[in-house]
Amino acid sequence: MEIIKIDDRKKLAFPRFHHYNLAIRYIVEQGLEQNYLLLPEATKETTELGSKYSPDYACAPFKHTLGSLIEAVNAGADIVIETGGLCRLDYYGALQREILRELGYRCEFVNLAEYMGGKKKEMIWLAKRLNPKVNIPKLLAAVYDGVKMAEYLDDIEALYYRNAGFEAQEGSYRKAYRQFLLEMQVAENHGEIRDGYQKAKQIMENLELRRSQYPVRIGVVGEYFTAMDAHSNQYLQEKLIRLGASVERYLNVTNCHFRAKESALRPRIRDYVQFNMGPTTTWTIHAALDYAKRGFDGIVHVKSFGCTPELDAVPVLQNISRDYHIPVLYLSYDTQNSDTGLDTRLEAFYDMLERKKKVLR
Ligand code: SF4
Predict the structure, then answer these.
(1) d(CA 84, ligand 1 centre) in Å
(2) Does the predicted model carry a pTM greater than 0.85?
(3) Which atom of ligand 1 is nearest to the CA of 279?
(4) How many C-beta neighbours within 10 Å does residue 19 have?
């Protein structure tokens, strides 16, 4: 008689956050030995769903993550995990839990903010809550690999946005990038993560480029979630490379969490800022100054509508713009943005940068 093994593992879900869900999936499946519900790419419906049940005044990341959580519960998640984080993100979990309860959802809800005191003990409590039989050494190894994967994801993405605008064969960079993401989506061990990364890097570095002698270089800075999450910023970086620019974005999980502490960056921007002004404002200003000093042609500042810390960064960016003669385009996102409106602004900005470059050459 055939014995059917019942999969009694729980299905965990996390709100979409750019490509980092692939690393979270790895940690959940390989370290916590539970199932992970990897949501498909967000759509207009995700945003509408999040907006519909959010308070009007909430900043856009609240709405995007709530939309993801509702879709995750509808797709059968047993446990949904809300991000904790800097700024208001830390309070989102409690409010989103209430909203989901009021909507009648009864799944387990874990608010990461309650475990983010930075103590190892708290993380172990969390791991045991998610899987009472968790094997801690195995989990730690998976966390290490997951962090490595996040770094590789950031690295390959940076390579993509720096060069894909100049590919000699249309779609070649995109194809290599998509293949890499697929490999990270199914990776089951350290070796597969490392091999997928090395392969993608090698393929990308060997692809033929037709870079103009003076390519337009644009740096993206701004509020943490919206600057990184492509769906939230309406695929801003993709739009810029399609116009022909080389694009960099310093703000990513690797740079903000693993490489540079706020206190280490602040002395480098002391001519402009004396104090820590908010969650990732130091990273924003540091990156903008770095782009200006490296001779970039323009900066795009991205923030969610109503984001106070990044609003405070605007006058500082204006000072950098004045001192280094570098134009800055300010984009503020809510959940009701028109693609055409954004395209028009980006085209005008890119044309201006290109003309300025020709005149100054
Ligand atoms: S940084 Fe801005 S967008 Fe992010 S949680 Fe804070 S106010 Fe909201």
Answers:
(1) 12
(2) yes
(3) 1
(4) 22
